[in-house]
Design a protein that fits this description.
The chain has helices spanning 14-23, 36-44, 64-72, 111-115, 118-124, 136-144, 159-162, 213-222, 257-267; strands at residues 3-8, 28-33, 50-57, 61-62, 78-85, 89-93, 106-109, 129-132, 151-155, 165-169, 179-186, 198-205, 228-235, 243-249, 271-282. The protein is of the alpha/beta class. It has 3 domains: 3-86 and 178-186, Periplasmic binding protein-like II (D-Maltodextrin-Binding Protein, domain 2); 89-169, 3-Layer(aba) Sandwich (D-Maltodextrin-Binding Protein, domain 2); 198-279, ACT domain (Alpha-Beta Plaits). The strands form 2 sheets. Strands 1, 2, 3, 4, 5, 11, 12, 13, 14 and 15 form a 10-stranded mixed β-sheet that branches. Strand 13 and strand 14 form a beta hairpin. Helix 8 (213-222) packs antiparallel against helix 9. The radius of gyration is 21 Å and the shape is globular. The structure holds prephenic acid (PRE). Residues 8, 13-15, 54, 57, 63, 86, 110, 112-113, 135-137, 180 line the site of prephenic acid. One of its GO terms (biological process) is L-phenylalanine biosynthetic process.
């Protein structure tokens, strides 16, 4: 039976591209959801088997909504990760005489897409107000539905094929090396294509703040020559200045080394929660 894979809708988001890449060759049906929380909740309450959510962007950093919901609200393992190149474009409703940039009064997009295009907006559209919406494709759809308004959306070039839109300007992101990491979460294991690269993500909670606590956590990995690719603190939401550490270990799970490091960290009084061990892929094509 075909299983469902929730993605951030409507059609035309970057998350949909990631979802379609994950679904490739699998009996999975991508279904749109209105926001990240709804995707994770739908998987958590068994409405769909899997979900794809953005996790981190190379310009703007962590998607806090995803990280926090995975930590605090649901207990869903990460099953895979895909890094996609991201190209942001300024899109306007299709008309015979395209709207000049100086006439645009309002720019709609997802906060991450706006953040990736700050310089472009400041230099080229200082007169426009910014409106944050749930996804880049929702922005594109909204602009296409109001062709008489001097509005623009920021999103993928694919949107000009999905909605009556045209490019006002292509490639407006402030840095060319723009990538977003998306994660696949699910309640059931999924047979993923083989990857040379594997990651394990853990959450470490320190018992209390004492000198060298984080140093001791990192030492457990360092002397075992275990490579970490990310360490990030997120608030526990229990007190000001109280944090979890999210650590990505970029290495095939070793049956002795990694559990040994976790046991050493637990022995100094820290809690270790595993968020998943999963393959990761880098997608080369741009859009
Ligand atoms: O709005 C979209 O198209 C999304 O898929 C979300 C999202 C994000 O949250 O980071 C995904 C990739 C880009 O970085 C911009 C927006």
């Amino acid at each position: 039976m075909e299983k469902k894979l929730a993605f951030l809708g409507p059609h035309g988001t970057f998350t949909e591209q990631a979802a379609r890449a994950f679904a490739n060759g699998q009996a999975l049906k991508p279904v749109p959801y209105p926001n990240i929380i709804e995707i994770l909740n739908a998987v958590n309450r068994h409405e769909v088997e899997y979900g794809v959510v953005p996790m981190e962007n190379s310009i703007e950093g962590t998607v806090n909504m995803t990280m926090d919901w995975l930590i605090h609200e649901v207990d869903l393992p990460i099953l895979g990760e895909l890094a996609l190149p991201i190209t942001q474009n300024l899109l306007v409703a299709k008309r015979d005489n395209p709207l000049p940039l100086s006439d645009i009064t309002r720019v709609l997009s997802h906060p991450q897409a706006i953040a990736q295009s700050h310089n472009f907006l400041r230099e080229n559209l200082p007169q426009a107000s910014i409106e944050y919406v749930n996804s880049t494709a929702l922005a594109a759809q909204t602009v296409s539905e109001h062709p008489d308004e001097p509005w623009a959306a920021i999103g993928t070039g694919l949107n000009v094929e999905l909605y009556p839109l045209q490019f006002a300007q292509e490639q407006i992101q402030d840095f060319s090396n723009n990538y977003t990491r998306f994660v696949l979460v699910g309640r059931e294991p999924l047979d993923m294509p083989a990857s040379e690269r594997e990651k394990t993500t853990i959450l470490v909670t320190l018992p209390e703040d004492f000198p060298g606590a984080l140093y001791q956590v990192l030492a457990a990995f360092a002397w075992r020559k275990i490579n970490l690719s990310r360490i990030e603190s997120r608030p526990t939401k229990k007190a000001l200045g109280s944090y979890y550490f999210v650590i990505d270990i970029e290495q095939k799970m070793d049956e002795i080394l990694l559990p040994g490091a976790f046991a050493e960290i637990e022995a100094i009084g820290c809690q270790v929660r595993q968020l998943g061990t999963y393959p990761f892929y880098l997608h080369q094509t741009n859009s």
